[in-house]
């Protein structure tokens, strides 16, 4: 089927009320574009004339890139939440208490967050490919260390070292999505990222619990060593650099841009070479994640991601105390299997969340005289908010009243798996629509905040009953989602307040 590619009508200086994120979805002749037609598709941002611009890559090349990144994310995060079903075995193996075993998770979570203050600047300076290769090698070493650890101190050190490498899965794929996909495509691919990330979190405990019971817990980390080695070679052979050094230009400067591209040749193409101003870029990228937390839209996105993800973490921390105890008496393998419900919910979230948010935004764009607002995505959060509420209520009541495990797991855990993919997918896609040049930094501050709270949970969740622990996270999650109402109504005004911020110019120098 032939497809006619059209670009958004260039913004005129006298066009009112067009803060960053707002796009006029019309072609160059100011004709309306039917975004649901197979004959036309508006491309935002407008790609360059360079064939090596990742926006111009063929669809199969983009798909291979995404698959490699998704596998990288899934395999590198695999060991992170694997501790929960193996807790009784670690208690006996290391002769320690539950608080110390909780730290096995906590130190990994906190390292995953704060390492991105280094990894995102490194990725912006040296490229996505170099970052993934180095971190994949670190993950291999970390998994070997975990498999060989003989004491609590050694195991904690191995968890930290492993997380240093695995931290790249928190941010790099989102940068890659912003590098190679257009505005109308990002929602569904953001869903692929969160699905890969949380699928690794879901599957890790399933595999770890059963391997620990049948073959010993060290066998799980040897398996992780194998799949992380596969990661390294898949990145080495199949992952091209996606970081593209482009200069933003006005629509009427096409000829100048083309002549400049001819003169500079490969310097304007995709490259892993460091920037000339690497030091200033490094300092800027370290400071930016903290600075942008003052933007209400980004602060809200951070809150949604943290609350949604740590609602899942609450289930991870409470599942062993609940299901290994009376009246359930689950073995470590059976505790691991309850995480299959998260997988089912996550797959539903993957299939529906991104496409739904894109579809809703397109429909509302047509109704809004072809003016696309990022806030249009937020309507898609409503059904997933309802799912989250129902799931949490069932789990809280089920924990407290010791309901049959089928109700808690088959319904409650499935709902939590669905919401942990859907809510962050929509919130992050919205934030990236508003502040595309700092997509990596957005994920950094989301990760840091999410993982800092997650680290603290290793200390206080054990002091509450499982039902009360989930109740705290349910209240946080509901509050974060409900704050989306004022964000929807005042989001454009908030974007207008920040439209002169330097963050919108970072793509010029990144």
TrEMBL record:
Disordered: annotated span: 249-269
Record's compositionally biased regions (Polar residues): 250-261
Subcellular location: Membrane
The Major facilitator superfamily (MFS) profile domain, residue ranges: 65-510
Primary location: membrane
Cell membrane as UniProt keyword: no
Topology with respect to the bilayer: Multi-pass membrane protein
Keyword Transmembrane helix: yes
InterPro entries in the record: MFS, MFS_dom, MFS_trans_sf
Gene Ontology CC terms, in alphabetical order: plasma membrane
Membrane-spanning segments: 70-91, 103-123, 130-148, 160-183, 190-208, 220-239, 290-315, 335-357, 378-399, 405-430, 442-461, 467-490
Keyword terms of this UniProt record: Membrane, Transmembrane, Transmembrane helix
Gene Ontology molecular function: transmembrane transporter activity
PANTHER family according to UniProt: MAJOR FACILITATOR SUPERFAMILY, TRANSPORTER, PUTATIVE-RELATED
Annotated protein name in UniProt: Major facilitator superfamily (MFS) profile domain-containing protein
Record organism: Oidiodendron maius (strain Zn)
């Amino acid at each position: 089927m032939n497809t006619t590619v059209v670009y958004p009508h260039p913004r005129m200086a006298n066009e009112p009320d067009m803060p960053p994120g707002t796009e006029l979805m019309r072609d160059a002749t100011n004709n309306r574009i039917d975004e649901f037609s197979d004959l036309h598709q508006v491309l935002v941002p407008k790609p360059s004339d360079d064939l090596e611009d990742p926006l111009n890559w063929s669809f199969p090349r983009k798909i291979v890139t995404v698959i490699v990144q998704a596998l990288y994310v899934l395999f590198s995060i695999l060991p992170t939440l694997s501790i929960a079903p193996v807790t009784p075995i670690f208690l006996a193996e290391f002769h320690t208490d539950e608080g110390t075993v909780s730290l096995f998770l906590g130190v990994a979570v906190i390292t995953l967050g704060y390492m991105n203050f280094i990894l995102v600047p490194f990725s912006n300076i040296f490229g996505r490919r170099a970052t993934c290769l180095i971190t994949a090698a670190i993950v291999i070493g970390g998994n070997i260390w975990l498999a060989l650890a003989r004491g609590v101190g050694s195991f904690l050190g191995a968890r930290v070292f492993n997380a240093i490498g695995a931290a790249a899965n928190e941010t790099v794929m989102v940068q890659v999505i912003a590098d190679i996909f257009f505005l109308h495509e990002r929602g569904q691919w953001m869903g692929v990222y969160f699905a890969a990330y949380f699928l690794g979190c879901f599957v890790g405990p399933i595999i770890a619990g059963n391997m620990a019971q049948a073959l010993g817990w060290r066998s799980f980390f040897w398996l992780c060593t194998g799949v992380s080695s596969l990661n390294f070679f898949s990145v080495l052979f199949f992952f091209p650099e996606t970081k593209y050094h482009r200069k933003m230009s006005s629509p009427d400067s096409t000829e100048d841009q083309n002549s400049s591209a001819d003169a500079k040749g490969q310097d304007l193409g995709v490259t892993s070479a460091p920037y000339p101003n690497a030091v200033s870029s490094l300092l800027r990228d370290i400071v930016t994640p903290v600075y942008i937390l003052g933007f209400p839209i980004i602060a809200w996105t951070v809150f949604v991601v943290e609350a949604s993800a740590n609602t899942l973490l609450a289930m991870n921390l409470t599942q062993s105390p609940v299901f290994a105890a009376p009246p359930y008496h689950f073995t470590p393998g059976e505790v691991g299997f309850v995480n299959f419900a998260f997988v089912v919910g996550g797959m539903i979230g993957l299939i529906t969340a991104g496409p739904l948010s894109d579809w809703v935004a397109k429909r509302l764009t047509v109704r809004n005289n072809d003016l696309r607002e990022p806030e249009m995505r937020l309507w898609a959060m409503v059904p997933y908010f309802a799912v989250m509420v129902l799931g949490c209520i069932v789990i809280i009541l089920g924990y407290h009243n010791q309901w049959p495990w089928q109700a808690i797991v088959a319904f409650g855990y499935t709902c939590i798996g669905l919401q942990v993919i859907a809510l962050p997918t929509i919130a992050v896609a919205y934030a990236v629509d508003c502040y595309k040049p700092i997509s990596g930094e957005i994920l950094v501050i989301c990760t840091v905040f999410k993982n800092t709270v997650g680290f603290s949970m290793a200390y206080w969740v054990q002091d509450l009953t499982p039902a009360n622990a989930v109740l705290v996270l349910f209240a946080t999650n509901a509050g974060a989602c409900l704050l989306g109402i004022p964000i929807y109504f005042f989001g454009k005004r908030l974007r207008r307040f920040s439209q002169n911020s330097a963050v919108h110019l970072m793509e010029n120098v990144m």
